[in-house]
Amino acid sequence: MTDKRITLAWTGASGAPYGLRLLECLLAADYEVFLLISSAARVVLATEHGLKLPSGPDAAKAALVEHLHVDSSKLTVCGKEDWFSPVASGSAAPKKMIVCPCSTGSLAAIAHGMSDNLLERAADVVLKERGQLLLVVRETPLSTLHLENMTKLSRMGATIMPAAPGFYHQPTSIDDLVDFMVARVLDHLGLEQQLVPRWGYDHRN
Questions:
Q1: If exposure means fewest CB atoms within 10 Å of the residue's CB, which of 78, 91, 124, 161 is most exposed?
Q2: Contacts made by residues 47-52, CB under 8 angstroms, sequence distance 24+
């Protein structure tokens, strides 16, 4: 039941294109996606991508489906206090969750089990159920507090993936840099991806 179900969360960190591209790829891979969007994430999405999402979950879903040209049947947009959503309970939540991009504020809340909104609760559920939690943190420089929170979550089993794209694939556009990070996330989920060639495979004799 849970093999093709996943929770994706967008926070107010810079990096909205990462989240959009990841959503597109997960839906293309036939995942059922539960999408959580913070209020700050909506502001960042409008600022960085020019996409203004309506506040209502159903209207936001319709806007995303139209923008990305994806199948709507596998996407559920949850309200930030939708406590009856499957992601709020260990008995029903997907075993995999990605926070992309992840702000250091959300990082701190997750590290300390705050659970003040559905996004934080969903991450708490994945941790307590020993699922797979990936945090694509975007901030620079990193304070000692940020690093301590990352270390704490890493010890709990979360995977910390700073939004730090590489350049060995010789990117020529911002989309290439976005795809690098999304490809690394897909790799950690065990999904086949053709976004970025793997190191060494294009350099064999």
A1: 91
A2: 47/16, 48/14, 48/15, 48/16, 48/17, 49/16, 49/17, 49/20, 51/16, 51/20
φ, ψ for residue 3 (rounded to 5)?
-60, -35
Report yes or no on 203 lying in a domain: no
Domain holding 58, by residue range, is: 5-189
CB distance 72 to 65 below 8 Å = yes
Separation of CA 28 from chain center: 15
Kindly state the DSSP code that residue 85 receives in the 8-state scheme. S
pTM, entire model: 0.94
In a domain, 81, yes or no: yes
Alpha-carbon separation of residue 54 from 39, 62, 79, 87 (angstroms): 11, 9, 12, 22
Report if residue 201 sits inside a domain.
no
Number of domains in the chain: 1
Single-letter amino acid code for the residue at 152: K
Dihedral through CA 137, CA 124, CA 154, CA 21, nearest 10? -30
For 71-123, how does the pLDDT look when each residue is reduced to its tens digit (9 = 90+)?
A: 899 999 999 889 999 999 999 999 999 999 999 999 999 999 999 999 999 99
Say which CATH number the domain at 57 has.
Answer: 3.40.50.1950
Eight-class DSSP state of 190: T
Element containing residue 71 per DSSP (H, E): none
Q: Tell me whether residue 198 is in a domain.
A: no
